[in-house]
Amino acid sequence: MIQVRNLTKVFNVPKRGVVRAVDHVSFEVRAGEIFGLLGPNGAGKTTTLRILATVLQPTEGTAVLGGYDVVQQPEQVRRQIGFLSGDMGLYHRLTPREILTFFGKLNGFRGAELKQRLSDVLARLGIENIADVKVDKLSTGQRQRVAVARTLVQDPPILILDEPASGLDVPTARVIEEYILEARNAGKCIILSTHVMEEAEYLCDRIAVIHEGRITATGTMAELRAATGKERLREIFLCLLGLESLERKTSRAI
Amino acid sequence: MLDSVRDHRTLLSMVVVPLIALPVLSLFVVKMVTVVERRAGAKAQTIAISGAERLPGLLNALAGAGLKFVPREDLEAAIESKEFAAGVEPVELPDGRKEVRIYADLTRQDSEMAAQRIRAALDQFKETNARIRLREMGVPDEVLTPFTVERVNVAQKKMAGFMWGSVLGYVVVFLMSSGGMYAAIDLTAGEKERRTLEILLSAPAGRSEIILAKILATTTAVFVTAFLTLASLAVSFVYIGRQVAQPMLKALSEGVPLDIGTLGLILLALLPTAVMIASIMVAVALFAKSYKEAVSYLTPVMIAAIFPLIAGLLPGTQLTPALALIPLFNVCQLMKEIFLGDYSRLSLVITLVSNTVYAAAAYYFAVRVFKSESVLFRT
Predict the structure, then answer these.
(1) CB A87 to CB B195 under 8 A?
(2) Are B53 and B267 in contact (CB under 8 A)?
(3) pTM of the full structure
(4) Out of A79, A83, A93, whose CB is closest to B3?
(5) Which of A13, A55, A72, A79 best tests the B interface by mutation, with the highest count of B CBs <10 A?
(6) Are B46 and B68 in contact (CB under 8 A)?
(7) Shortest Cα–Cα distance, A218 to chain B (Å)
(8) At CB < 8 A and 24+ separation, what contacts does B87-90 make?
(9) Dihedrals phi, psi of A95, to nearest 5 degrees
(10) How far is CA B252 from the centre of its chain?
(11) At CA B229, angle to CA B1 and CA B296, rounded to 5?
(12) Nearest residue on chain B to A53, judged by CA atoms?
C-alpha cells in the first residue's frame, strides 16, 4: 500500500547551506504490516513521514500511498491516511470530543455516522470519561491517546505514526502499542518511526535503519540478525551505523 | 474559530475592548473634561486688576459680567504664579488714547476662559460708553448697528453626523485591525507554536481551503470588532450626551444616525476592508514561528495603516473619485459621508470595488504564502 522510490528531500537552511534530510530512500509497506523506521535524532525519519503525509513535498523520487501519488494526488492520499506527529498536535483549548468532531467533519463524516464513529473511537482508546475535558487539563498519556484517537476517527487504511509512544509511561505506552498491533491485525498498513529499540523490536514486522537520510538496511529481525551477526536490535543498530566500536570503548572506560 | 475565541487575547481585543473598555474610557474622558471645565470656570471668575482708577466705570463693567477682582501691582507675576487666572490693566498711551490690557496665560484653560470673559465684558463696556456719548451728542443709537449679523447653519441636523463621522470611521478601522490581529496570529504562528499545523496540513482539505478558513475566521473577528465598536460607541455616546450638559456632547446624542439603513450601509462598506485586513494579517503572521515574533511583524503593519487614517483627519478632506482608490482612507471618508447622509454614489461604488480588488489581491498573497514550505516550516 506504500511504495517509496528514491525519495529525496533537500533543504536550504540559512547558515548551514544545503541539507539532504532524506537521500534516495526506497521501501515498500504492505497491508497488515508494521514497518518501522529506526534511526537516531536527525536521521530523516520525521521528514520521510511528513512527505508521506503530504505535509512536505519531495525534491526527487516518488511515494505512492493507497494507489495515489503524494505530489500528483495529495488530497486523495490524505483521505487514506491517519497521521500522528511527534508533537501530538492537539488544540489545547478544545476538548477531545471537539477535536474528533472537527477532524471527523474534515474527513466527510456527518450526523449520526460521526456521532457513532466518535463513540467507537473514544471507547476503544478508553477516553470517554475525559471526552469533554479541555486538552490543556489532560496528562501526557491522556493527550497521546486523544492524538491516536484523532488519527483513527476516519478509520484510514494507512497509519503514519511518528514516535507514537514517545515520552509515555509504560502502561500508557502499552495501550498504544496494543492498539497498533490490533490495527495491524485488522489489515491496516502501518509505518512508524521510533528511536526506542524495545518498541521497534516488539511492534515491527520489518525495520529500516535510517542514518543521515539514507537507509542502511531493511528487513525482519531475523534478516537483520543474519546480516550483522548481532542478536539484540540495539547492537544491530549500532553496527549498521558504524558506531559499534565507539560503544565498546565507552563501556571499557566506564 | 472555536479554538481562537477561547484564547483570552483574542477575546480581549475582539469583545472586551469594544464593549467595555471603549465606553468606560469615553465616559471617563467626558467626566474628566467636565470636571476640568467646571474647575477652570470657577477659577476664571476672579481676576487681578491694576490701575482701575485710570478708566472710570471699568470695575462696574467687570462686576456686571459676574467677575470678581482683586488689586495687584504685578499682574504678570500674579498670573504666572497661578494666583489668578487673568488680569486687566487700563493704560494711557503716549498719544493720549486709552488701552485696556488683558493678561493671560493661554496655555491654561482657566486663563483663556477668564480672558474671554474679560474681553466680552470690555466689549459690552465699550458699546455702552459709545451709546452714552452718542446720546449726549443727540445721535440715535442705531448708528452703531446699521445691520446685525447672524450665522445660519444649514446643516444643523447634520452636526451629530458630522461629529460622529469625523472620528468614528478611524476609531472603528483601527480597532478592527487590533481586534483581528490576535485571531490572525493564533491561527497562524499560534498553530506553529502549538505544533497543530502539520496535522491540519495532513487532513483531507486543500491548502487553499485551509487558508480560506483561516482568513474567514480572522475576518469574522475583525467584523465582530467593528460591529461591537459601533454598537457600544453609539450606546455610550447617547447615554453620555443625556447625562452631561456639554453642548457638543448634547449635539452628539441628538440626531445620532443610528437607523438600520445607515448601519447596514456602513457594515457593507466595511466588509471588503475587513477581508483585506484579515488576509494581510494572516499572510504576515504566517512568516512568524511564534506568537511573540508575529506580534513584532504585525506591529509595523498596524503603524503603517495609521497613515491613511491620519490623512483623512486633515481638515477639508473629501472623498473624490481619485481618493476613493486609497485603501483605509476611502472607507473612513465614506463612513463620514454616510453618517452625514451625503455621499456620492460614484465614490461609494469606487470605494467598494477598489477595496474588493485589494481584498482579492491580499487573499491571493495569503494563499501564495501558505503554499510556501519555506515559510510554513521556517527554522
Answers:
(1) yes
(2) no
(3) 0.76
(4) A93
(5) A55
(6) yes
(7) 27
(8) B87/B47, B87/B48, B87/B49, B87/B50, B88/B47, B88/B48, B88/B49, B88/B50, B88/B58, B88/B62, B88/B118, B88/B122, B89/B49, B89/B50, B89/B51, B90/B51, B90/B52, B90/B54, B90/B55, B90/B58
(9) -90, 160
(10) 13
(11) 60
(12) B202
Residue B229, Cβ neighbours under 10 Å: how many? 22
Is B246:B27 a contact under the CB 8 Å cutoff?
no
- Give the up-direction half-sphere exposure of residue B353: CA atoms within 13 A in the CB hemisphere: 9
Chain A closest CA to B191's CA: distance in Å?
9
Residue linked to cell 489545547: A92
Contacts of B372 in chain A (CB under 8 A): none
Test the A interface: residue of B182, B194, B198 with most A CBs within 10 Å: B198
Does B206 contact A75 at a Cβ distance shorter than 8 Å?
Answer: yes
- Cell triple for B96: 493720549
Written as tens digits, the pLDDT of chain A (254 aa) is: 899 999 999 988 777 788 889 999 999 999 999 999 998 888 899 999 999 999 999 999 999 999 999 999 999 999 999 999 878 888 989 999 999 999 999 888 888 999 999 999 898 888 899 999 999 999 888 888 899 899 888 889 999 999 888 778 888 888 888 889 999 999 999 999 988 888 888 899 999 999 889 998 899 988 888 888 888 888 888 888 776 555 454 444 44
Q: Which chain B residues are Cβ-neighbours of A78 within 8 angstroms?
A: 202-205
Residue B352 corresponds to which cell in the numbers above? 467598494
Rg of chain A over Cα atoms, rounded to whole angstroms, equals: 19
Amino acid letter for position A152: L
Q: Under DSSP, is residue A148 helix (H, G, I), strand (E, B) or coil?
A: helix
Asked if B198's CB is within 8 angstroms of A107's CB, the reply is: no
Alpha carbons A69 and A51: distance in angstroms, whole number: 11
Interface test with B, best of A48, A97, A106 (most B CBs within 10 A): A106
B175 closest CA partner among B222, B220, B217: B222
Cell of B81: 504664579
